[in-house]
Amino acid sequence: MNSAAAKARWIGQSVARLEDPPLVTGRGQFAGDINFPHQLFMRVVRSAHAHGRITRIDAAAARALPGVFAVWTAQDIAEVPPVDFREGSIPALDPYRQPVLATGRVRYVGDPIAAVFAEDPYVAEDAADLIVVELEELPALVDAQAAPVDFSPGHSSEAAVIRQGYGDVDAAFRTAAHIVELELAIGRHSGVPLETRGAIGRYDAARGVLELHGAAKVPHRNQELLARMLKLPPSAIHVHESHVGGGFGVRGELYPEDVLVCVAAERFHRPVKWIEDRREHLIAANHSREQTHKVRAALDANGIILAIDDRYFHDQGAYVRTHAARVVHMTAGILPGPYRVPAYRAIGHFRLTNKTPAATYRAPGRYETTFVRERLVDAIAHALKIDRVELRRRNTIGPQEMPYPRPLEALGEEIEYDSGDYAGLLAKLLAKIGWDALNEAVGRRKATGERVGVGLAMFVEKSGLGPTDGVKISIDTSGMVNVVTGGASLGQGFETVMAQVAADALGVDYRRCRVVHGQTDRIPFGIGAHASRATVMTASATHIAALNVRRKALAVAAELLQASPDALDIIAGEVVRNDGKAGPSISLGAIAQNLAPTAKARGEREPGLTAEGWFKTEHQVYPYGSHVAVVRVDAETGRVAIERYCIAYDIGRAINPALVRGQIVGGYAQGLGGALFEEFSYSEAGDPLAATFADYLLPALHEVPAPEVLLREDYTSPLNPLGIKGAGESGITAVGATIASAIDDAIGMPGAVRQLPITPQRLRRLLGGR
Amino acid sequence: MEVNPRRIAAAERALAGAAPGDQAFRAAAQAAMAAVDPMEDIINTAEFRRDLVLAVARRALERAAA
């Protein structure tokens, strides 16, 4: 570690968020707040049927309504291709992409059929109601385990079969002392942010630039994607992110609505605004999670895992969206988690159904596989009569085995666990909660008839998706540090964290840093904020850029102060002698003045107190943790009360511990939703049955008792200069698994919980109710 | 439970004149359970809701008497 970072003053401090003042004073700018003169409002007409052939669309009455500017169906935008994958064409999956407007066929309730553009949003909505769509209904497929059908001529509804694995799995099962098998299901649910989606397209004729406002997360990727789809140079399109009321994976992908506002703005030469309503969000934004796993483990007599064999069905919904096969593929790569698994085979059936298309939701693939793997480990412990903690200890990869490569892939990278002591962290968690005493106390309560139980789960997270990130820092003549990143903010504290990192390397107050994100016109490259990557990747690049600027500043200061750069330090924005003695000093602002293009002192140097920094990595980082829950089951009502929840997590290095804890607690709340409440159910005909908050149950304050967080910085990552691992998904990953484990224990039925969410009615059924 | 809240006469009759206690509360809850016509939705069947009446009506009476 270099000297500047070693003297950290801001890194590791829970400083107040820089981004809060506008948000807490009502001056934030969310998609709904963005308005341009002469804008039109768009309303999307959506399919009311799960599957059908469009026989007639009559928009005459809608077009005649005063205030309606235009109505589009697929034929009006015939030159616009289906929504592309983020990484470009994948020939085997291209036929499953979603058209921007349905072309002859609708495939889920919510599928966009037509778009109305009007002078105000109410007229647009009224006009949309006047559009008559006639359909010839087709049978709906709502079960990903049912036999595949034709998606289109020559293309099966099983879009792909994913295979990952290594070792001789069949031999392991032939020689195993024990085999444990389970069938497990994770319910369809997703990110439901407070702010629904929004998109504003604007064509700036003066500059010849098409702008998309609203979609945060991967602005540069969306810029490239739009450029490909609309056949424009990337530099003729700019994407601008605004404030965000929750991202969680669903916001910021390029959806049909984003393409529509861009195409319409360009064609009409008028800004076009679209704000999603809540019902639309629940049927139009990406769903996630729905998988069924048939998993089995081969074990020796001591419970050592010899092999895991998993066959799973991934319910992709009606189309393959921007993520392509990411989630189904990653599922296979990360299922083994913290355990040694000498032989492994995962076969994933990537199947389309007539439901809202699925993609990523916070901890994609990990929430699902942690449920599967940890249920399996609990089942092994029960079958072999081995204590569940002891069984985990026996099978956990140890710190001496790091780095631990595994011939599996996640997000296109070979998996290699970078550092950690999984069992060591579990031991710390168990010590913190007093595991033995806790289990004794719970045992005494059970003896009096209470249905109370303890559950646990371990996990390895995955974060910091590369391959690279660049940051440009320039210090202006007042000494203000401008940090221009290709990162994105989904409300996670991005600006604060980057400012803390830049401030430490530059010797300035973090409040003297301004952080730019999500603006493609400010920096030509960026991968955005997803996969818990922002702090790992963008902060590493920020650190490198800041050190480069520091070096420049010290070189100029050395010349002006007639001292060696080694004898200088920067303290509170002022270059001073580093031996503590009084002497001449110069501010960063003054150095910037001396580097102005016209400044004599600049000499032959490049103008500006500015530098870029690039960080590149071959591997993601793998933070890890464990969850423990104590729950009480009300056998009469099926209600689950959480008495205690504790999350242990090793983040390597916490730039801002309060923000890390916030990430963990927020994730935990969403994890409880998937464990106990949230589910996008469908009727056999493919009608969405959870399209309002009366049926899609989000946990609120009452259902989310505060968790305890044991945040550790035991094992830094060797893969980046600050040793950072990501924070975004650790709180959610193991919640389904842990709650299931605790309920099993509470009702005295090991292995009973095989399906999420564990609704009161499902729990009553497990207990013999109806 | 049902579309609108309503008084359950059978449960009231089971309580009228009876000493507050487990026996009366159970009888009233049983009567309420028999009398309701629960809604049904994707999350909960009518049978499940009916069973809930037994538990929550009894608990409400216990709490009221406590």
Task: Give a written overview of the molecule.
The complex is a heterodimer of chains A (770) and B (66). By secondary structure, chain A is of the alpha+beta class. Chain A has 20 helices and 30 strands. In chain A, a hairpin with a 2-residue loop joins strand 18 and strand 19. Chain B is mainly alpha-helical. Chain B contains three helices and no strands. In chain B, helix 1 (9-15) packs antiparallel against helix 2 and helix 2 runs antiparallel to helix 3 (46-65). The longest helix of chain B is centred in the last third of the chain and has 20 residues, at 46-65. The relative contact order of chain B is 0.21. Chains A and B meet through helix 20 of A and helix 3 of B.
Name the features:
heterodimer; A: 770 residues; alpha+beta; seven-stranded mixed beta sheet; five-stranded mixed beta sheet; 30 strands; disordered N terminus; B: 66 residues; mainly alpha; 3 helices; 62% helix; elongated
Compile the SSE list and pairings.
The complex is a heterodimer of chains A (770) and B (66).
Chain A: H1 3-6, H2 20-24, E1 40-46, E2 52-58, H3 60-64, E3 68-73, E4 105-106, E5 112-118, H4 121-130, E6 132-137, E7 150-152, E8 155-156, E9 158-166, H5 169-175, E10 178-186, E11 198-204, E12 209-213, H6 219-230, E13 237-240, H7 256-268, E14 272-275, H8 278-284, E15 291-299, E16 305-317, H9 326-334, E17 343-352, H10 366-384, H11 388-395, E18 404-410, E19 413-417, H12 422-433, H13 435-447, E20 452-460, E21 468-475, E22 481-485, H14 494-506, E23 513-516, H15 534-561, E24 568-571, E25 574-577, E26 586-587, H16 588-594, E27 609-616, E28 624-634, E29 639-650, H17 657-677, E30 708-712, H18 730-733, H19 735-747, H20 760-766
Parallel strand pairs in A: 1-14, 12-13, 16-17, 22-23, 29-30
Antiparallel strand pairs in A: 1-5, 2-4, 2-6, 3-5, 7-8, 9-17, 10-15, 11-12, 11-14, 15-16, 18-19, 20-28, 21-22, 21-27, 24-25, 25-26, 28-29
Helix pairs in contact in A: 10-19, 14-15, 17-19
Chain B: H1 9-15, H2 22-35, H3 46-65
Helix pairs in contact in B: 1-2, 2-3
